[in-house]
Write a structure and sequence with these properties.
Order of helices and strands: HHHHEHEHEEHEHEE
Number of strands: 7
CATH class: Alpha Beta
CATH architecture: 3-Layer(aba) Sandwich
Radius of gyration: 16 Å
Oligomer: single chain
Distance between the termini: 33 Å
Number of domains: 1
Number of helices: 8
Helix content: 25-40%
Strand content: 15-25%
Low-confidence stretches: none
Largest sheet: 7 strands, mixed
CATH superfamily: Vaccinia Virus protein VP39
Shape: globular
């Protein structure tokens, strides 16, 4: 947890405890419902916790904001971000019910009051959100058709989509920009903030 405190010095003791509890709960639930690979669960802190929180190293979700996490899987990046931003409301959705079961168990287990989780497809979600997040769901162009009408770009200057992706995104972004000419794409290199081999090819795609 020393690295976490160094990266986010404003964390309270309660938040630090929640991060510790979350890791233990994920290990417990993953033994029953495999939502994280066996290899990755041993690298939970780096590959899931820090990777999810890397969004918070490049932007800050505003108090009172609304976040939709699409294809959340076991709760990433939504659960770690919900701990980091207790004054922001999170709606985590996934089309696989057993994964949402784990999300609810972890959220309840660590006392997260700002998380709602639904077994639902992104296209079926009602309402608008200031921020949409996802982690390696699919290519941008088909993905954005599911979420574009759910983003309220007007409330905050940093409203938009934040996607955690890896590898060479040149062609993917070029095709997206052709399809969505009115939107801006910014790439953030996670390795500039997190010095670990895992993050060497990791990017945050910000669309607004």
């Amino acid at each position: 947890m020393e690295q976490l405190i160094e990266l986010f010095p404003e964390l309270t003791g309660h938040q630090i405890d929640q991060f510790k509890q979350a890791e233990e709960l994920y290990k417990h639930w993953n033994a029953q419902i495999n939502v994280i690979s066996r290899k990755d669960i041993d690298q939970f802190h780096t590959r899931h916790l820090l990777h999810s929180l890397s969004i918070g190293l490049f932007t800050t979700f505003r108090s009172g904001g609304r976040v939709l996490d699409v294809g959340t899987g076991g709760g990433f990046p939504g659960i770690p971000l919900a701990i980091l931003y207790p004054d922001v409301d999170f709606h985590l959705v996934d089309s696989i019910g057993k994964k949402i079961k784990v999300v609810n168990a972890v959220a309840d287990g660590i006392g997260l009051k700002n998380v709602k989780a639904s077994h639902i497809r992104a296209e079926q979600v009602k309402g608008e959100f200031d921020y949409v997040v996802s982690r390696a769901v699919t290519r941008l162009t088909p993905f954005f058709a599911w979420i574009d009408d759910k983003i309220d770009y007007s409330r905050y200057t940093n409203s938009g989509f934040y996607g955690l992706k890896g590898g060479d995104l040149t062609e993917e972004i070029r095709n997206f920009e052709k399809a969505y000419k009115s939107l801006n794409v910014t790439l953030y290199d996670v390795s500039t903030k997190l010095n670990d081999a895992f993050f060497e090819t990791k990017k945050i795609v910000f669309v607004n």
